[in-house]
Amino acid sequence: MEARVLxxxxxxxxxxxxxxxxxxxxxxxxxxxxxxxxxxxxxxxWGSFAASGVVEKTVPDFDEDTxxxxxxxxxxxxxxxxxxxxxxxxxxxxxTTPPYIEKMSTTSIMTPLGFSQEVFxxxxxxxxxxxxxxFLSALSYLKGVGSMSNGLVVASDAPRAAMTDxxxxxxxxxxxxxxxxSKKVLAKIEGFSSCAYERMGERFKPPRExxxxxxxxxxxxxxxxxAVVSSSVKTLLKKLKVSPKDFSYVVIQQPxxxxxxxxxxxxxxxDEQLELGSLVTVTxxxxxxxxxLGLAAVLDAAxxxxxxxxxxxxxxxxxxxxxxxxxxxxxxxxRKTNTVKKExxxxxxxxxxxxxxxRQAIR
Length: 363
Hints:
CATH class of the largest domain: Alpha Beta
CATH superfamily of the largest domain: Thiolase/Chalcone synthase
CATH architecture of the largest domain: 3-Layer(aba) Sandwich
Distance between the termini: 47 Å
Number of domains: 2
Shape: globular
CATH topology of the largest domain: Peroxisomal Thiolase, Chain A, domain 1
Radius of gyration: 19 Å
Strand content: 15-25%
Number of helices: 11
């Protein structure tokens, strides 16, 4: 699947006029839970901590679920974009941990935000790729209807596994929302590419279970991640006739603190291109919110005419690679509140016993 714009022979970006895509990000918002648990608390409780590169992670509070976090992020996004809820004609929600497996979550987001009942609502819940899947779903709808309305993408996740399973150690929580439209666009969507391979034995959730499992074949999991992400990224670079050096920022799915960096290096990206969007160290694995959260952090700091690459991954396996280019409007739309940095700074540390209670593992 592909959407692209024509590029000049030169990869330099001198202005916005050559970008033919008319849809992009008009505003965005995030919600990061205040509660945090540091890796040392796991060491005290279990004698070890298995999430490579993670120093601390975010924890949803007793009254926080993925819908509530999504609504909070969406309110910030609508405020940042300055659009009225009635202008939103498409709502795409992504989460691997929705409150219900069979019951629309989008309706629970629409209602407190004051959306029209005629909104085209989609839900994406089967893998950590769901965030970019929802993003591209909203984009496709807006391009298809050809209207001047807006789309809202909400990716909110809080992955869970059994407390005795080491894959649980790195799981965090966060929500991010992005308003798509064609008016005051901060970052235009230059193009995207998707791929899907059949890969077995990775992260999965069996029927009638709400906890993620993993067969624990680390080498196989990493091989799958590298192969699928590399495929989507290489395809996009080829289609757009650009190279890794043409990107100012790169955000890749972050199941831990090292794998995305290894893949980026093999693709030819420099470590400094990843720095702003690499948040797993202080959030943990935020599931399908990971990539869009990193994109929000990049947009908080990016200047005009900078190219951004985001690449997601979901076991099974699939990946979306998306290229965006910031416009001159980005410098006039810097958020003073609700930045990713501010959300990360507003925190309170908890011990492991409190963590167990907040995750409802004990009462």
